[in-house]
Design a protein that fits this description.
Length: about 150
Amino acid sequence: MVYTELMEKPPDTIALNRRARFDYEIAETFEAGIELRGFEAKSAKAGQMQLSGAHTLVRGNELWLLNSQIPAYQPKNSPLDYDPGHTRRLLMHTAEIKRIAGLMKEKKSSLIPLRAYVKKNLVKIELGLGRPRKKSDKREFLKEKSARREMREE
């Protein structure tokens, strides 16, 4: 059973970007690590991370995650100037980043964070390479989704 179709969280998932699969047609997925401070990692593992509205950017040979929200684990013990929505670096091999950048230019697509999860006690981000859906495609997607739901109920 595919969790992303049902919009349920798999057991290891911290955060899920529900709008991503609706707004974008995902062609390929990638896994990336994320650079976090200690109190951010604790907060993310506690399930306080949000990916809604987040997107990625390729600058040079680095990949960056923008607009993801990770509040401090213990706000009183965090630095005074801490911004929960600051830009975070994603960790991938340089060759993979170059390949992704080439695919983004070639296919005129975007790299969208789909979900965050824990793997071997590390926080990972699943990224999807996708093109934006048109309104008509979104309507068809909703019709297919409701048809699948009716088939399950019968």
